Amino acid sequence: QVQLVESGGGVVQPGRSLRLSCAASGFTFNSYAMHWVRQAPGKGLEWVAVISYDGSDKHYADSVKGRFTISRDNSKNTLHLQMNSLRAEDTAAYYCARDRYGVPFEYWGQGTLVTVSS
Amino acid sequence: DIVMTQTPLSSPVTLGQPASVSCRSSQSLVHIDGNTYLSWLQQRPGQPPRLLIYKISNRFSGVPDRFSGSGAGTNFTLKISRVEAEDVGVYYCTQATQFPHTFGQGTKLEIK
Description:
Chain A has 118 residues and is mostly beta strands. Chain A has no helices and eleven strands. In chain A, 0% of the residues lie in helices and 55% in strands. In chain A, the strands form two sheets. In chain A, strands 2, 4, 5, 6, 9, 10 and 11 form a seven-stranded mixed β-sheet that branches. Chain A is globular. By secondary structure, chain B is mainly beta. Chain B has no helices and eleven strands. Chain B is globular and about 40 Å long. Chain B starts with a strand and ends with a strand.
């Protein structure tokens, strides 16, 4: 079955960097686009970024553009989110989600919590 | 950016009774390919979101048939025909017609 497992979250000071990973299994990873979506504590969902199945196309939310980079390693079935210049407002649970064309956000991971605080 | 507006933001419902959530988009969600990429997600307490409905009215695998979606253009509705205890949570509409993808604020469904 489809499984997505995020890792890499933690507590980090403002201005520092963090790299999140999402390990995928149970499907042909290199056939699907992948998203990152975040949720601040007690708040709603915010789309962060998407990467095409082969990594050739990427899109970002304005709130993270220029600071975050989405990437993937299809040889390792892993999605990444490199987060630089972190701010307090980036504090959130970060979820990876699979995208089947026409069916976005098809499957979700359990999330990893990022806390930006001094 | 396309703004998604949900109503109501909170919905107390009696078990066994119907419930509905409305979602309005600030512009048409019809894609140039002719499809409308409007989905509904459910987030139970302490859980990640889960896909319920995609392309307005298509139930995702394993979703009970008491959930249904309808609408067109800029106005959409999620209906639960008979609410069960396991339906408690927050429901989000989301559009994937245009980047950035956007979500509604969420509607909290609770039992009276």
